[in-house]
Amino acid sequence: MGYQDFSAGDNCVRGGSGDENTGDIHAAKKLDREEKSLYVLRAKAIDRKTGRQVEPESEFIIKIHDINDNEPKFTKDMYTASIPEMSGVGGLQEVGAFLKSADSLFGTHLGTSVIQVTATDADDANYGNSAKVVYSILQGQPYFSVDPETGIIKTALPDMSRENREQYQVVIQAKDMGGQMGGLSGTTTVNITLTDVNDNPPRFPQSTYQFSSPESAPPGTPLGRIKANDPDVGENAETEYSISNGDGSDMFDIVTDKDTQEGIITVKKRLDFENKMLYTLRVEATNTHPDPRFLQLGPFKDTALVKISVEDIDEPPVFSRPWYLIEVDEDAKEGSIIGQVVAQDPDITKNAIKYSVDRHTDLDRIFNIYSGNGSLFISKPLDREETPWHNITVIATEINNPKQSSQIPVFIRILDINDHAPEFAKYYETFVCENAKAGQLIQTVSAVDKDEPPQGHKFFFELVPEFAVHPNFSIVDNKDNTAGIVTRRNGYSRSKMSTYLLPIIIFDNDYPIQSSTGTLTIRACACDSRGNMQSCNAEALLLPAGLSTGALVAILLCIVILLGKQRKKEPLIISKDDVRDNIVTYNDEGGGEEDTQAFDIGTLRNPEAREESKMRRDVIPETIFQIRRTAPLWENIDVQDFIHRRLKENDLDPAAPPYDSLATYAYEGNDSIANSLSSLESLTTEGNQDYDYLSDWGPRFKKLADMYGGEDSDRD
Questions:
Q1: Among residues 389, 388, 392, 413, which one has the least CA distance to residue 326?
Q2: Is the pTM of this model over 0.90?
Q3: What pLDDT is attached to residue 60?
Q4: 172 bridge partner residues
Q5: Which of 449, 414, 390, 388 is nearest to 330 (CA)?
Q6: Partner of 56 at 20 to 30 A CA spacing, among 28, 158, 193, 467?
Q7: CA distance linking residue 362 with residue 394, whole number of Å
């Protein structure tokens, strides 16, 4: 009989073998409890001769006993943690005892927790001390400690400052066998960062700062930067700057640059060197996020003294007012002084000032100024009805430095005087019916006046004294600046008197009283029974019965047409000595300055007139050049382009004489009172010409007369 068929159980991995002769069980390979701690084997007893099983199958359970063959392993190879700086560890006596304790290697219950590390041991925790792990600190003393049982790392020193040291590396060991000799161990590294708290106030690196500013610096100009240093970071280092006191607190301001945590000193108001040359400020820097836990360390702010000196510059003159308003009567005489402007040099030197009028604001030179004292006077008559306001600019300039000047607006209001007579509001023409009755109102008239009296207009109406007792009409003043025309008799005959002229005097109520006479035209007309006009033409009574009005109109129209065909056209140029080149002819003769109907400029586009080539009559050419034909120019070309091309052709013409000549492409007209304006007929003398005759040419030449005929209005 022998033992056969040692086999593992169904759910077990084969781990051993048996001796079939003796029944001994042996390990077939190295066992590892951490991989498999229990084996179940089954054995059978079989007769070798018969091969039959002599007894039932037997089961053997084999348990593997643990040995300390595994070291503790941490869950992470490296840990990262942070803790606020200045974290506490307990009372001072406890801390002192902690530092002196021989057990400090294994930690204590004191301190602020930082992080917990965990190590595991694969050995059997129920068998001996193979899996009993104890923690200790190998690196990081005396700043941190570790709880030997829980692995919690705590602070060991009070008031650790981030500003002194921010990063710490702590090495923790985990050892089995309860930390006894012969136990296996493992280590891990913990990187600990101290985070910032607001435990430092801002501090200025110096007690006094000095800056300077020119007196011309406008408000908002930065003068300099100051900074209070704060070793904290982030919002704990945010600083707010302010001016606590000083004689310059109203003249200067300080703002905080959020990016650099600097205080920027700026100008708040206009500076004046002559008024004050030095300012002193007390600037304060304060933390915006103080930590109440550290207020006992002292005030979290600092102050510094800032001195600002004002630099003198050459400033332009300064007027006594921002603007001037002058009122003057419109009948003021020429040369009358109407007001004065005053300016002075604000600098210590007090340079002399001269005054002048900006002629761009007084093109008509109506006003002038005495350059020495700034008195304004009138150079030309005033007319309120034409220009009630004059806005001029006066310039004040330093005599020693003309670059320094300033200007001021002067508003001149022209006060009204009663220099205009009232007149009819419009041209009045009315009618009276032949069957009108006495006392009948036929027309209401009103008046206007260019003057503007302060109390408003008040007009009076009456007939001219010669017609005070008019046999046909009378006037009734309505007391509201209107008057009514009333008939004085019954019946009017247009065959005897077709038109009545009624002169009416209109008075105003101002001083001096002004009056004018207006004539009202009244026509006698035939009316129906309701007073509606039917006919006012007296000649219609004398027309033959067989000749109608339409026939008369047709006859007159034929006469006008016949006369128009017989009109003889006059030549454009009458003078035989005219030397104009390339004359452009057109069929509409201009009337000079008196012609208010502009001729059709399209006639200048006449290709026959423009393309006609003529020989020059102002020079005898030595060689007859071939006449050039230019390309047609009349397709979509304007007059200006046409003239430019003609000028270019004359410039490139080889037959042109080597001296200046005039090519005229327009004609002034025979009715111009200025006659010809051509330079060919101007005087040849090089002396000054007398332009007083421009004043005789009428209002159209008033501007030229003022420019060339007047005297220089700038007087000292």
A1: 413
A2: no
A3: 75
A4: 137, 188
A5: 414
A6: 28
A7: 10
Residue 471, preceding peptide bond in cis (omega within 30° of 0): no
Contacts of 194 (CB under 8 A, 6+ apart): 82, 83, 84, 85, 160, 161, 162, 165, 166, 167, 168
Which among 206, 205, 209 is positioned nearest to 309, based on CA atoms?
Answer: 209
* Residue pair 538/498 in contact by the 8 Å Cβ criterion: yes
CA distance 528 to 544: 24
The torsion defined by the Cα of 616, 620, 625 and 628, in degrees rounded to 10, comes to 0
Q: State the Rg of the chain over Cα.
A: 60
Tokens matching residue 481: 């600046």
pLDDT per position as a tens digit, 668-712: 555 555 555 555 545 444 445 667 777 777 777 777 777 776 544
Distance CA 176, CA 135 (A): 9
User: What's the CA dihedral at 145, 148, 151, 155 to 10 degrees?
Assistant: -20
**Locate tokens 């921010």: which residue?**
166
Q: How far apart are alpha carbons 176 and 138 in whole angstroms?
A: 16
Cβ proximity of 329 and 339 under 8 Å: no
**Which regions in the chain score pLDDT beneath 70?**
1-19, 32-34, 65-68, 90-109, 467-469, 538-554, 556-558, 560-639, 655-690, 709-716
d(CA 382, CA 388): 9
* φ/ψ of residue 98, rounded to 5: -65, -45
Vertex 532, ends 527 and 535: CA angle to 5°? 45
List, for residues 11-61, the tens digit of each pLDDT value: 444 445 566 777 777 777 777 666 777 778 888 888 778 878 888 887 878
C-beta separation of 237 from 261 below 8 A: yes
Distance of CA 16 to the CA centre of its chain: 96
Strand partners, 507: 460, 515
Whole-angstrom distance, CA of residue 672 vs CA of residue 667: 11
Q: How high is the pLDDT of residue 554?
A: 63
pLDDT for residue 388:
92
pLDDT of residue 278: 94
Q: Are 491 and 472 in contact (CB under 8 A)?
A: no
pLDDT digits (tens, 9 = 90+) for 136-182: 999 999 999 999 999 999 999 988 989 899 999 999 999 988 878 87
Neighbour-count burial of 481, counting CB atoms closer than 10 A to its CB (0-12 exposed, 13-18 middle, 19+ buried): buried
Given CA atoms 335, 338, 341, 342 in this order, what sign does their dihedral have? positive
Residues 6+ apart with CB under 8 A from 468: 462
Distances (CA, A) of 671 to 26, 241, 705: 150, 83, 20
Tokens standing for residue 522? 């009244």
**Minimal CA–CA distance to 622: which of 655, 661, 660?**
655
Edge to edge, the sheet with strand 208-214 lists 208-214, 301-311, 278-287, 239-246
Q: For residue 239, with 0-12 CB atoms within 10 Å meaning exposed, 13-18 middle and 19 or more buried, which class applies?
A: buried
Q: How far is CA 362 from CA 358, 380, 704, in A?
A: 7, 12, 16
> Distance between CA atoms of 219 and 207, rounded to whole angstroms?
26
- Using the CB atoms, write b or e for 185-206: b if 16+ within 10 Å: bbbbbbebebebbbbbbbebee
